[in-house]
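Chapter summary example.
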Amino acid sequence: MIEQPHLDKIGQEHLLTLYTITRTINSSLDFDEVLNTVMDSMMQVTRAQRGFLMVAEEDTMRVRVARGLTGETIQSEASYSTSVVNEVVATRQPLLTNNAQYDSRYKVGQSIIMQGLRAILCAPMMVRDRLIGVVYVDSAIRNNNFKEEDLLLLNAVAGQAAVAIENARLYRLAVERGRIDREIQMAREIQESLLPRKTLSIPGYQVAAQWRSAREMAGDFYDLFPLSDDTFGVVIADVSDKGIPAALFMASARSMIRTHAFSGLSAIETISRTNDLLVEDTESGMFVTVYYSTFHPDGRVRGVNAGHNPPLFCRRATGETVYLPRGGRAVGWFPNNPLGTIDLQLQPGDVLVYYTDGLTDAENPEGDFFGEGRLAQTVIKHAGESAESLLHALEDAVDNFCCGLPAFDDLTLCVVRYIGE
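The structure predicted for these 421 residues follows.
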């Protein structure tokens, strides 16, 4: 086995060749262009019949470029000496043989015999201690032997090529990441545009809402929309997953709920129809918990709970708080969702707080949850304030509780306060 070569062992002519090749292969950051330039340079240096450039991918060496004697592309599946490549991969050392048919350093493989190979050069492409790939060239011509200087130069070029290939790979990853980041940002902007752009102004009511995403995209959402006869709807929901899949599912569920609500269906019919459509059309296994309420001018509220956290009701006159009944299953999970309506009569000053579990499951540094108890205490303390003030009080309470820890889950809040006709 030849020792790892040093540049001081390469002659002046070869150094000039190395300089020219290095400048060429470092002139581009296009990954495929760099691979082809490296292979062309190797064929130029060695004057071999065939050349193969292999890149390490997981636990294997994948041929990315294969060249023939005149620079033509040959089939990457063409036989080469896998025993030589495996030895170079195992030892991280270059290898030279001019008598491949009878070389005793390794077993003669079928590819060597079938191709009639005589001379083989192979060198690892290393970045620090990491194997980037392997460059391999061979020849079956009797008088086309490789010299030790060829191996020294090939190994030196392989070292420079490894750096160029790694730089091109990292640049490609950075470009791809930038593209993905831009697409995610656009998707987030689209998702935010699906949320109500302005607070509802409904006689007799104050409404305030907040939406926070734990990631670039959220599975939580809320919706506020006017209905006929001076009524309005409030929706709060939480998709079972996170990220882009959840955001797409969220957009689909929101559109269905709105469509059914605007067509004049009741609250329970709206959620039931949405459930049936999602069950029929969705194969992802995702589902969404939903609480949908319709509010009337006289303080009547009709709600439908599909597996969601029950809203907190605060009776202003007595300071009493109670969580509304649970009911139903998440939407898009099973057909024939056992939904029921929950009716409530509000008095002036009464408050309803809708939320996702990102609020009650928020943790402090000790691992304690914010919980329903702290939610109720905060609401009681600020129940006499406006819906907007109460909303901010809840946000401050959970932020102070978490002591700056990053949010693990999305958090969505909606506060509805009845002030009377």
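To summarize the output: DSSP finds ten helices and 15 strands in the chain.
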